Amino acid sequence: MAIEHTFLPILLGDEMNAYGMARAFYESYGVKPLAVNHTNTAKIQQSDLLTFREVPRLHIEERFVVALQAIAEEFPGKKLLLLACDEFYVKKIVHHQEELSKFFIIPYVDATLADQLLTRESMYQLCAEYGFDFPAMHICTVNDYEQFNIPFEYPVVIKPMNMMKYATCIFPGKKKVYIAHDKEEKDAIFHAIYKESAYRDDLMIQQYIPGEDANMRVVNAYVGQDHEVKLLSVGNPILEEHSPDGIGRYVAIITAYDKALMDLVKVFLETIQFQGFATFDMKYDERDGQYKLLSIELHNELSNYYVTASGYNLMQYVADDFIRGSKQQLTYVQNKHLWTIVPNGVLFKYVLNEQLVMEAKSLIRQGFATDSIFNYKDMNAKRWLNVTLENLNFYRKYKKYFNNKGLSNS
User: Fold this and answer.
1) Number of H helices, E strands in the chain
2) What do you get for the CA distance between the two ends of the chain, in Å?
3) Bridge partners of 158?
4) How does pLDDT run across 7-24, given as a tens digit for each residue?
5) How many Å is the Cα radius of gyration of the chain?
């Protein structure tokens, strides 16, 4: 007999991110979320932990609220928890919060604060007041790119600001993130993006921080409705993806304890009256011994499952807070755990830091390791085949794209 739940998570956007969140909800409550997207990449359809639904044109402004209202009306009497799985849908939710709150529980800040945190210039200005360091950056537009001169030293990272629009562009040599080592490379990248594609939005140019993947840090936080931090976790990404379409995505993380960094994030989030999820991406700069803040995200990415795997279920925090009204105490995660989505053969070969390889092997032997995609409790025949093929594809991609030089700030 199926269990009837009083609430239902509705997950919008990136399907792979939705899978990690759905797994966490299912493990904590036995509830199967409804994952909704405007496209269907067939990545999670075979999962038994969720229900997937394609809603064409959901991303179109005039369709967004109407389509979600129609979904809400299908579940009368249920508390519907609306969560975004990518930045695009975070922005859509917060900008329509007044209308959507009639049908959904929405654990996000208001649009003003969300926009401030999701816009690089204003985010850096705000964070500088609280002691965060960050790499120099500049914004380039389609109107000034031909005359644009980099106001700081090479190499530089070049990244489209509107990833939603950029994702629809097709042109030779396309990458998610670029590194230019000199003016000639910078000019060639600008030309490819603005002359050979339909992309017309801004580009972010940022000073590159040297160092391997293991120099990255990710800080994950959950802040309650009372604007007090409930959970803080620091992850040390030991390997990132290096393919053009996936560059910068974490594929392996070991939890790390850094009280000073956690304290810095805690004070910042509580002072600005934040609520909900926050993900801080940083990179350690060996030149001055400082962590440089790269971005703050308000949505849960696939790698956020490393927190749940370490014993602190992120989705349980938001559901217990907004659905059950449970009181939660502050927790700094200290449990050592390895999270990964790549086969061990890829992990052991391409992690450059031998000490981290040894630590990863030790955690695997002790049973403190989790692959959030290769989930034995969610493995019907079709899903097993797809996951196996994806694992084999990781071997191919790393052999082709990994260059032993680490990865860019992303």
Assistant:
1) 14, 16
2) 47
3) 178, 205
4) 999 999 988 899 999 999
5) 21
Candidates 262, 141, 125, 154; CA nearest to 202 is 141
Contact assessment for residue 229 and residue 220, using Cβ atoms and an 8 Å cutoff = no
Cβ–Cβ under 8 Å, residues 398 and 367: no
- Contact status, residue 157 vs residue 179, Cβ threshold 8 Å: yes
Q: How far apart are CA 274 and CA 284, in angstroms?
A: 25
Residue 378 in contact with residue 47, Cβ under 8 Å?
A: yes
Beta-bridge partners for 137: 206
- Amino acid identity of residue 259, one-letter, is K
Identify the DSSP state of 30.
-
Nearest residue to 283 via CA among 216, 224, 365, 340: 216
Distance CA 241, CA 300 (A): 18
139/157 Cα distance (integer angstroms): 12
pTM recorded for the entire structure: 0.92
Cα 10 from Cα 18, distance rounded (Å)? 10
Of 151, 94, 98, 153, which Cα lies nearest the Cα of 119? Answer: 94
User: Could you give the 3-state DSSP secondary structure of residue 108?
Assistant: coil
Residue identified by tokens 């949505």 is 299
For 23, 33, 48, 228, 388, the CA distances from 379, given in Å and listed in that order, are: 12, 17, 8, 38, 11
Cβ-based neighbours of 14, under 8 Å, separated by 6 or more: 37, 85, 86, 301, 302
pLDDT tens digits, 270-322: 999 999 999 999 999 998 989 999 999 999 888 999 999 999 999 999 999 99
Q: Which two tokens stand for residue 193?
A: 């993006």
